[in-house]
Amino acid sequence: MPEPIVEIAHSEEFSASHRLHDPALSDEENRALYGLCNNPNGHGHNYELEVFVRGPVPASGMVMNLTDLMRLMREELLPRLDHKHLNHDVPFLEGIIPTAENIALAIWKELEEPIASFGEARLSRIRLRESRGNWVEVQAGPSTPTA
Ligand SMILES: [Zn+2]
Known about the structure:
binds zinc ion
């Protein structure tokens, strides 16, 4: 029987605005591709960010201390996203069309190393909800080492 895999998760919310617009396309092509999300002055979302961490369960009984994960998200990451315009205010999103997919991938890159610095646990999944019905997930790929 394969060993069970243990994941822990913490979720936080942030509010941000964005505009989906590809400067390589014409205004008409952008409207056709992104619809309402191409609105010239942007629009907002209340995002829910869920971060999953996977690893062995050591003597402490904790894959990773959830307080450390919460602090990392609340104190290091969210101040850079909350109440920001994702097209203009966030250096780690510069030059990126801020779709939920791209935001989640960029958050992955921001969190991967800090999470690994706590011990053996590794970032395994990020779920970013843009609305109640729409979300994206980024998962560790086969080449991404997970504990
Ligand atoms: Zn949007």
